[in-house]
Amino acid sequence: MTEAKFHVDLTNCDREPIHLLGAIQPVGFLLALSTDWLIARASANVADYLGHSPEELIGNPLSDFLDPQLIHDLRNRCAYLVNSDTVERLFSCELGPRGESFDVAIHFSNKQIIIEAEPGSKNPGDATGTVRWMMARLDAQPDIEAFYREGARQIRALLGYDRVMVYKFAQDGHGEVVAEACKPGIGTFKGLHYPASDIPKQARALYQRNLIRIIHDVNAAPVPIVPTLNENGQPIDLSLSVLRSVSPIHLEYLRNMGVGASLSISIIVEDKLWGLFACHHYSPLSPTFERRSLSELFSQMFSLRLESRERRELVEYERQARDISDQLLGAVASDETLLKDPDWLGDILTSAIPADGVGVWINGAYAFSGVTPPTDDFRRIVRALNGTAAGKVFATEHIGSLVDGAASFAREASGLLAIPISRSPRDYVVLFRSEMKEKVRWAGDPHKPVEYGPNGPRLTPRESFAEWQEQVEGRSAPFTPSQLRVAETLRATLIEVVLRLADEAAAQRHQANARQELLIAELNHRVRNILGVIRGLIRQSQPDEEAVKDFVKVVDGRIHALARAHNQITDDHWGPAPFEALIEAEAAAFAANKQNSIISGGPPVLLNPQAYSTMALVIHELVTNSTKYGSLSGDGEVHLSWERNGAGDLVITWQEVGGPPVKKPTRKGFGTTIIDRSVPYDLGGAAKIEYDPAGVRAVFCIPKRHVSERPKSMSARSSVPHDRRVKDVPVQPDLLTDVSVLLVEDSLIIALDAEDILQRFGATIATASTVHAAHDLLDEFRPDVAILDINLGDQTSFSIADRLHDLGVPFFFASGYGEQAKLPMEHRMRPVVQKPYTTGNIMRSVEDLLGISPARD
Predict the structure, then answer these.
(1) What's the average model confidence in pLDDT over 755-769?
(2) What band does 457 get if pLDDT is binned at 50, 70 and 90?
């Protein structure tokens, strides 16, 4: 048998199960049976024990060679094999022609039954009493270190090995000897670390399936299986075999350590390979199968006790953490500034998770407590944290793996645990741990270059196990899994605190915004009413002289222009408004018959309130002057364009063409002054007007600080509510003949203005200034249509609206609040006309309600 036939191929560590090609240890024999108990294969040394060669056994029933009672017992044991990884045992069985005592193991391997036997003891002793005594000693240990040590002592006392170690796996896969029991004079391995490569991943997977592995003699020649391969050309799977041989690589590894025999027992905690009982003997040693089974049982009990101890410690630790979380939640609920207090946070968090310093990062602001990195490095760390699995707790014992240049502050902060406490962009509470310089004792140099052996890389065992010390720098004490779980609990608590504070802040902002909106709406309402009163006073105060009438008309137009501008810029609570809407409103109001003669175009822009009001007066004067004296007085046109120049300023060009010859005015009136001086004086811009005989040309430059781009979602037309886009309509005295109107308005001047508009169209009006007066009028007659001012002093007109609805009388509301007016649900769909009243907004609304379709110009 050559070495290549029984080595383990470790180059593919993920392959399962391990196939050992034809070798078992020579301390016992093996039989492979089919399910009808015919012998399919046997180990080459079977004749030494049963008196028959493999050739005599293969193909024959087992009943020809073994006692019927033993076969009966073996069949019964097969019923106990509940899964593929179960191994059953029978002790002190008499086998062979000499009636020797054997211990037997039986298990399934694929579709075969594997029976293994090795010489045993006829006096196994009191196994139950032994294990009970061992566990009593174990349970009496006061702490975890003594617990490990007692476990090693009990295994050594039971099996007699020179050295028994408790070998614990770290998170990165390397192992450490955490406890040891050994005979005097052979030195100690306690505290030594072994690289993860010493026990490959494939071997670790096997340790979870087969809890105990033994090598009786590292120099013994393995015994082949006959035949080596089955009829399908496959070797027998000996993953669960108690006699299976092992890789020659592992045997060489043990020889390099001077070990003559070894045994390992798995320690399984929470279904994971926690570690091993590793037993070494410096000469061949063969503990009986019964003793090994007893040690396996003890290891299982040890694992359960270990799991229980770790769980109790974790439960107590997490209970304390929950108390801290409750304390944190309660404290911040009463004082939200504590969340930004790093000293307080540091005290409360480090009482749950040991750390040397705390850094808090909230909305770009930061604060520190304890020992932390420099400010600039903390910023870099936060940026790097945003690139990790943000949203979860992140921990590292080596900040250098997260950011470059960490060595410069490693003494202060080498490890961190980051707790995200917000959504992206992330806010963090970061716990820092200082550098923990230590000397790690390795069993040989873990950084030794890979050597190539007969089976390729990674398959040559380390030859030197001389102690090798490594000075570890730039690292902190690692954060344990239980500390990470506690950090997740604290993260949930902190997020709950942040969300609660955010909700409270949002509620306060909402209340403040609501109060501000109410105040703005009230101010706008009052301004619109004042403008309406002024217009009404002017209109109602007209004498008979034509010159005064012309003056009143001019002043009324200017006030109306300001009112329209005010309406536009208060649509979004005193915000920027589209320039196109201003052009449209002025053209509709003062060039009703010439709208198609005003040709405008330019990029979509918004003007801030100051610029919007100023340009409303300027465009108003240009339009009215053109309709009186310029191109709009005849068949001419106005070309109005605007663009942004290189500096971002808005350049507006007004060009009249096709009108009567232009003469420069001999007198500079107020309108001309508005055109010449408003933009430079009010906005810091420039204005230039030229009176060319072919047509007036004016150029205005509005500084960019007054101009902004219009969002794509906003169109010029959509930004102007319908009732504010309508133009004044020509008076038709007979349009509302025989139509009675109920007008409810608490301002006399505004009521007179509305009455004048309605009378010019032939309507009959009954006016009331209070809710009571309106109900009295409705007791006397039923109007054809009604106009209701929403706010009547300290009352509203909603009760009148309810009565009109019951009577079937069409009506609309009027308000200085316009579309911001709050209507009750039952009247939510009623039209609302925004004051001040014009022929356009009153008559269009009356026409819509009554279904009148008058001829349009």
Answers:
(1) 89
(2) very low
Sign of CA dihedral 320, 323, 327, 328: positive
Residue 30 clears pLDDT 50, i.e. is over it = yes
With a cut of 70, say whether residue 337 has pLDDT above it. no
Burial of 371 (0-12, 13-18, 19+ CB in 10 A): middle
Provide the strand spans (E) within 97-147: 100-109, 112-119
The 10s digit of each residue's pLDDT in 168-191 is: 988 778 888 899 999 998 888 888
Query: What is the number of other CB atoms lying within 10 angstroms of the CB of residue 695?
Result: 23
pLDDT by residue (tens digit) across 702-758? 999 989 876 655 544 433 333 333 445 666 778 888 899 999 988 776 787 788 889
Dump pLDDT digits (tens) for 111-158.
899 999 998 876 666 777 888 888 899 999 999 999 999 999 999 999
Lowest-confidence pick of 384-398, 402-416, 548-562: 548-562
Strands 795-796 and 811-815, bridge-based pairing: unpaired
Which residue in 124, 83, 93 sits closest to 29, CA to CA? 93
The CA distance from 692 to 470, in Å, is 94
Instruction: Strands of 390-516 (E only): list them.
Output: 394-396, 415-420, 428-433, 438-443, 452-453, 456-457, 467-472
How many Cβ atoms sit within 10 Å of the Cβ of residue 101?
Answer: 16
Among the listed residues 834, 783, 835, the one whose alpha carbon sits nearest the alpha carbon of residue 810: 783
Question: Could you check whether the bond before residue 425 is cis, i.e. omega within 30 degrees of 0?
Answer: yes
As a whole number of angstroms, the distance between CA 645 and CA 643 comes to: 6
Return the domain boundaries, the chain.
4-15+127-221+244-311, 20-119, 335-436+474-479, 572-720, 740-850
Helix, strand, coil share (%) of the chain residues, nearest 5:
40, 25, 35
- Amino acid 145: pLDDT: 92
Q: How many CB atoms lie within 10 A of CB 546?
A: 8
Taking residue 719's Cβ as centre, other Cβ atoms within 10 Å add up to 19
Please name the fold of domain 20-119: Beta-Lactamase (3.30.450)
- Is the pLDDT score of 22 beyond 80? no
Residue with the two structure tokens 């939640």 = 329
CATH number of 740-850: 3.40.50.2300
Contact assessment for residue 443 and residue 189, using Cβ atoms and an 8 Å cutoff: yes
| The CATH number of domain 572-720, selected from 3.40.190.10, 3.90.550.10, 3.90.1150.10, 3.30.565.10 | 3.30.565.10
* Per-residue buried b or exposed e for 418-437, using 16+ beta carbons within 10 Å of the residue's own CB: bbbbbeeebbbbbbbbbbee
Does domain 4-15+127-221+244-311 fall into CATH 3.30.428.10?
A: no
Is 4-15+127-221+244-311's fold the same as 335-436+474-479's? Answer: yes
Between CA 562 and CA 559 the distance in angstroms is 5
Rounded to two decimals, what is the model's pTM? 0.53
- Extract the tokens encoding 212: 């105990």
Name the CATH topology of 335-436+474-479: Beta-Lactamase (3.30.450)
CB 809 within 8 A of CB 785: yes
Measured CA to CA, the distance from residue 135 to residue 155 in angstroms comes to 11
pLDDT at 453 exceeding the cut of 50: no
Position with higher pLDDT, 321 vs 306? 306
pLDDT at residue 79 in the model: 87
Cα–Cα distance, 208 to 264 (Å, whole number): 12
- Residue among 41, 19, 18, 21 nearest 30 (CA): 41
8 A C-beta contact, residue 574 and residue 519: no
User: Residue 16 has what pLDDT?
Assistant: 39
Q: What single-letter amino acid sits at 309?
A: R
Angle at 33 between CA 28 and CA 36, to 5 degrees: 145
